[in-house]
Structure formats: structure tokens, C-alpha cells
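ok here's the first one, seq then C-alpha cells
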Amino acid sequence: MSLTPSAGTDRVALAGRRIAVTGALGFVASHLIPRLLSRSARVIAVVRPGRDASALEREGCSIRAADLSAGEARDAWFAGCDAAVHLAGIAQAVTLVPALEAAGALRAVFVGSAGVYTRLESRGADAKRRGEARIRESSLAWTILRPSMIYGSPRDRNLARLLRWLERCPIAPVPGGGRTAQQPVHVDDLSDAIVAALERPVSSRREYDIAGPEPIPLASLILESARALERSVWLLPIPLGPVHWVARTARRWKVPFPVSPEQVLRLEESKAVDITPARRDLDFNPRSFGDGIQAEARELRSTRPPRGRQPGGPSPVARSG
């Protein structure tokens, strides 16, 4: 069954289509897979061997175990698939593309990263660029999506950390003064873009930046996050040089540090991208950062016990006077 549009429409119906999803136990997949299932797609969840995927089975997914970090991918991982969504790191496309081609799964959406735009020396960015180059030269009907910083729930690895910090501390260090533009994208908006890419043949062999509606300075992002928590925050500007030195020293001595030296330097690089092509071809209409971070703050608070009460412990006693 191929992914071709129905007569008289510019969209492909996903009902009954067999769609493989790599990184199926990850953060983005947890928002994408329910969308695919709601369209009656037959989801094949590709997970690492030994991982517990029973929750995905209960949702109606088929499970295939695959070690995508191995030196050679196997076409059996994607046998019988009509399409694939690759969420497990675009650098792996170098070995994954031949397996997809051999399996006959010609339609593929690859979710990469806006990090490929960095001007810094970066082995990670270079690996992503090699992955993208391998995709472009393939015979697949491919689409490359490059999301910016992804946020949207306590499971994200980006703004959830900031929210937790702001809950505990009224002071936020701001490297470089917080002037650099950021453009975070909500995970649900990214998931909608992935589904749209699968449904719309116009996106075949095209690349799209996926981000929020407009760039905002880092300082404004922090202030908006504090506002979502109904907290006051004092921004403490700090120079990037010393922070970079600490990050490098921590890496050298294998001491845990919240950011890498590369991430520190990237704080000086604008993260602004152009989402006009995605708006045009994918009907991409991302929510404002204010709306998105407020929803994440509400969810974060809903997962925590009230102050003064420990999980499973007694209710706090109200005192008068």
C-alpha cells in the first residue's frame, strides 16, 4: 500500500497505512503516536532491544526491536511499512536510509534539528549534516523537519528544567545578557507538522524549519516562564567566558554540569528561523510561547503534591490565628 493522494485531494489518508516510528518511547513520539492512531494508521513502534514497550502495545502499536546505533541497519526493521517517521537522531540516517530503501518504505519524514545551522565547530552538527546529505541523495520521498528547542511538558529536556529552577529560586543567571533570539516550538505543534508532512505530497523532497511563531530574546523567555508560574524573578547577567570555562573544566574532570561547552557558546547564536514554508505547505500555525509555557507550567504543578504534603503522607493541618 503506497502513500498516494486520493482522487480529487492533495492529501493522503493515513487510515490503514503502516507507519514505522523510530524513537517510539521518546518525548516527541509520546505526542505523535496518539495522533497517528487517531487517524487509524497502523503504527509500528521501533524500540531498542530490551526496552519495555508494553504501554505502546496496549495503545495498539506493533513492536519491533532494533538497535539503530549499530553499524548497519536492517531492511527487516521496516519490512511491510508504507512510511517511516525517524525521531531517533538524524545522524543515523547515514545507515538508516539504505534499510528504508531496501524495505520499499519510500515515504519518510526525518526529524532533525535547527542545530545544523551553528557556525561553531561541532561534531554533533557535522554528523547531522552528513545525515541530511545522505537523505537528499536517496531515492526516498523524504521530508526533513528541523525543530528548534522543543518544549511542552514536564518530560521535555529544555524548558522543564527552567521552570523547576524558577520554582526554587528567584534569581536566574542569564549568560550574555539574554539578548540572543530564541524560537521554541511546542511538542504538539511539531507533532502536527509531522502528520501534515505525511499527509501532504507537496512536502516530498523538501525541508522545513519548525519553530514558534516568532523569535523572542532569552531574557523575555525567562520572564514569560516566571510569569507562567506566577513567580517574580531577578535576571542576573553573567559573561559567557567564565561560564564556558567552567563547562569545559567540568567536562575535562567528568563533573556533572547542566550544559555543554558548545551549548554555552551557542547562547550567542540567534535561534531565529523562517517558518514561512511550513506555514504554506503544512498549514503550520504554532501557538504563542506565552500560551505554550503556561500550559506546561500548569501540567508541571499538577504532577506535584501540594506544599506541606508528601506523596502518601497525611494532609497538612490548617492553623488558625
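and now the second one, same deal
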Amino acid sequence: LTQWFRAYFFNPLTRWLRGRKTPVGWTILITQLSTMVLIGLWHGVTLNFVIWGLWHGLGLFAHNRWSEWLRPRQDWLDERPRLHGAVTAVSTLFTFIYVALGWVWFALPDGPLAWRVLGVLFGAA
């Protein structure tokens, strides 16, 4: 599924946006969000799967931007192994929590129940 979406949707859309001189950040956001929403809809045509796709698209975008921000600082981090380890550990933990929260939308049958579960998880219910 991933390879198909990359070859027939993501890459053509990226080329189309680049041809229109869309700024890189916007190109990444649009392509990742739209691809993940379509992958969500492939799993089922419900609002939950659209939200799941948006959630993961935003996560991919945030990861991309974080990676780009870290890239010029990589040598500096490599010289500080403890700090490098801490950044890696916090990044990994944040990614795990973000993805786990996103699965609430995938696993539950409807939006109100998903919101209720997220509310309980965050102490709002």
C-alpha cells in the first residue's frame, strides 16, 4: 500500500506542487497530509480514519521539520554523547506517545467514543 501511494499519488503530487513553485514546507505538509488521509480512507470511509490520517500526516510533517532543524546541528550533538542520547530518547518517547494516541482514532468505532477515551487519558473526562 505504501509503495503504491508513493508511486502513484505522493510523488506525482510532489512534482506537480514543485512545478508550481510551492514553498518546500507547504509541499511537504500538503503531500503528507493528503497521502495519509487517503491511506486512512483506504482502511474505511469514516471520519475516524480521516482524523487518523490527518493525525499521522501532521506527525510525519513535524518529524520532517524536526529532522531538518537537527541536521545542521548534528555534528555539534555528536560531540556531546549524553545530550545526543537525551535528544534521541526524548524524540523516541514523543514519537511513541504520539503514534499510540493516534491509534485511538483507528481502533475505536466512532468519533464520540474516541474523544471520550482521549478525554479520560488527559484527565478531562
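notes on #2: The chain has a mean pLDDT of 95. The helical segments are 2-19, 24-43, 47-70, 74-78, 81-107, 111-121.
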